[in-house]
Request: fold
Amino acid sequence: MSSESSKKRKPKVIRSDGAPAEGKRNRSDTEQEGKYYSEEAEVDLRDPGRDYELYKYTCQELQRLMAEIQDLKSRGGKDVAVEIEDRKIQSCVHFMTLKKLNRLAHIRLKKGRDQTHEAKQKVDAYHLQLQNLLYEVMHLQKEITKCLEFKSKHEEIDLVSLEEFYKEAPPEISKAEITMGDPHQQTLARLDWELEQRKRLAEKYRECLSNKEKILKEIEVKKEYLSSLQPRLNSIMQASLPVQEYLFMPFDQAHKQYETARHLPPPLYVLFVQATAYGQACDKTLSVAIEGSVDEAKALFKPPEDSQDDESDSDAEEEQTTKRRRPTLGVQLDDKRKEMLKRHPLSVMLDLKCKDDSVLHLTFYYLMNLNIMTVKAKVTTATELITPISAGDLLSPDSVLSCLYPGDHGKKTPNPANQYQFDKVGILTLRDYVLDLGHPYLWVQKLGGLHFPKEQPQHTVIADHSLSASHMETTMKLLKTRVQSRLALHKQFASLEHGIVPVTSDCQYLFPAKVVSRLVKWVTIPHEDYMELHFTKDIVEAGLAGDTNLYYMALVERGTAKLQAAVVLNPGYSSIPPIFQLCLNWKGEKTNSNDDNIRAMESEVNVCYKELCGPQPSHQLLTNQLQRLCVLLDVYLETESHDDSVEGPKEFPQEKMCLRLFRGPSRMKPFKYNHPQGFFSHR
Amino acid sequence: MERAVPQAVPLGQVEVFQALQRLHMTIFSQSVSPCGKFLAAGNNYGQIAIFSLSAALSSEAKEESKKPVVTFQAHDGPVYSMVSTDRQLLSAGDGEVKSWLWVEILKKGCKELWRRQPPYRTSLEVPEINALLLVPKENSLILAGGDCQLHTMDLETGAFTRALRGHTDYIHCLALRERSPEVLSGGEDGAVRLWDLRTAKEVQTIEVYKHEECSRPHNGRWIGCLATDSDWMVCGGGPALTLWHLRSSTPTTIFPMRAPQKHVTFYQDLILSAGQGRCVNQWQLSGELKAQVPGSSPGLLSLSLNQQPAAPECKVLTAAGNSCRVDVFTNLGYRAFSLSF
Reply:
């Protein structure tokens, strides 16, 4: 067996070396197949199971042999060596079998491995193929999805709706028969139609653009034409001025005024606007004009750098020329005062015409630094007035508008902030400058829209149109009433100074036909003198004798009786009645403190004045009061009870018809005159 | 002497008129309420003002306490005379007498309880009522004035019971002689007449001006004021203020007062009188002038002593006349303050 196995071994070795070198050997191999012993082929032939059994048997045999050897060796003996040798040879054979089996196992293993390897390679190849195919599939799927998602640009176009399309499109485009069934064709047709429409519209657009260009050019031409017209119109307006004046339609003048008005300071502007509006709307007798220099007004608003430059230049010049002479402190202060009281160069003039053709001229000024307005008044009449002595103050510009509203005497500045300004330049009160600057009445401020609230001093007071408008009508009416009542008084004074009490015919009914007492004197007295009279104390204490009133003294006489009447004339005449205080000198001096009847006479004239007002506008009040005074004196003297102890007849026989001579605890005389019965009774 | 001149307040038409009215106001009559705490004053415009004496006299009195609590127009003409019963205020002026309830009077818009007019003879002119007198025993009211008669009116029924004629000129004042009962009346004709109420006849006549001691012809003969204290009577006016003994009709004391007196009254052992001139004069019965206390009005027409038992703290003398003020004298020696319309 060992030779067989070595034989087996050798060819194997030769074959394995020699095979790859020569190709011819392959043929020779196969030829030598019959000759060689191919172990590999043997593997295929043998059954692995049987080999395993052989292996187990061999191992058993080897174990048995070894055991026997062992036995023999242990027993020892002579034939043992031969038996051991025998057994050794047998074991070698068995070893050889084992080796073969081992070889076979190895070859089987190798074969198995090769087979596995092959199979595995195949599987791998298939696997790769599968992967490739999968990839392709995925790719194709992606492409399909892309294709499916593809939106053609045509879907973004807003096509006209189907109905419209079929309505409007011409049949060669719409091809209804085809397109109805086939949506693809339909869409194509619609797109066609769309394209056509767009082309058409683009044409139109171009046409319109060109039209527009043309029209713009025409407009340009016409504009030039019109602008060349303006100077021609101006010249026509100039030429029409004389015609305007002839027709009393001073449009140009009004236009000029409005131009000038733009330069007015705000309060004067408010006044101007409101007065013009009021004049046009309600009162045709009011006329408004602006006076003053517009250039100066414009000069006030020169930019500050220029004026500063000018100042510094002029200062430098002044310093050079008048280095030695500095202005004295007084002169400096004077200049500062003048600066503070400076008036705006423009002023507004209002002319109020009254029924009897007398005119009240009001000139309104604006004091820039003090932010107040002042007014100067002048009354002119249609005919020249001869001023009676006592009427001196009635129409004087200083006092004619005093207390138009109660307490508005116009001697103090209405702006509380002015006081601080005055302190700086040493002005005590505006009263000293009022003659020159005009009176700062409160109603003047209101007409200019300036409101100076007493409780909360405001930093800047701005001119307010609504304030002016709300006061305009009342003030104008009051002004007119004031002028007319003053003029009426003026006339009446002229008559009173001659001793005649002018009673108009419509007031005759208030008095009996025969009045014997006569007015002998009518003079004006100064305020201080009035305060010094002994019979006027009550009026003074009641606060009714302020320095804004006018004071007069009248003297009524009859026989030996002399009645002095001190009269307080309030500027608000005739809505506020004149107040009389009497002193009778007849058989002693009787005043209201020692004779109740004198008190009653005063009451008749002062308290019951409403009966004496006469027809509106009650300008007859004063003269009626004076006439009544004469009547009262008559009654008093005639009803005096005769003193039995004195001899001789009564000085004044009773001529008046009286029902009763005395009445009541105070034994009042009958002072009330009853019309038309003509008798006297008690109140 | 420099007088402090009040600042002239800017006065509109209404303020000036009101000031003039106040200057020319005359308060003719006064009457104290039955509780003693209020004083009613009537003026020549026909208004009645109710002042709270308790408020004005209290220690916390302010300026407003001296103003009337309420003022209302009572009559069309002047209110010449007022008198109070235990519940009503009776006021009379131009020809009629009106009654007001004291409890109602303090409310605004008070209306009179009743008004009566005595039967007058003349219709040409309504005569004034210068004096009212209460006769508690009969519960009647006596009115006298311009028609020269005394009329008696029963306060229960309002009927005019008697008309006493005798005066030849209008009647100024009345006084009651409790004991008899007799009424004294003084008039413009210069006579003081005594009337017996039960018989309704004139019992006695004193023609004051015929007595040389007291007559003052330059003032006239009219009797302006009367007061009586059982047997004694004091009267004044044109003639001098004189104290008379009634039974003998003789003048016992002549008070040397030049100015005619318009109101006279007995008080404790004094005689108080007031008239032309500012002062309230206090006379002893002997004829001596005890004191002359000046008031604030240039002439006084009425004096009122608040002797109501219910309000002893308001026991004051009030004087009113030719002004809108009522002077209050807490102590007869000086004028404490003035209430003003």
User: Anything to note?
Assistant: Chain A has a mean pLDDT of 81.
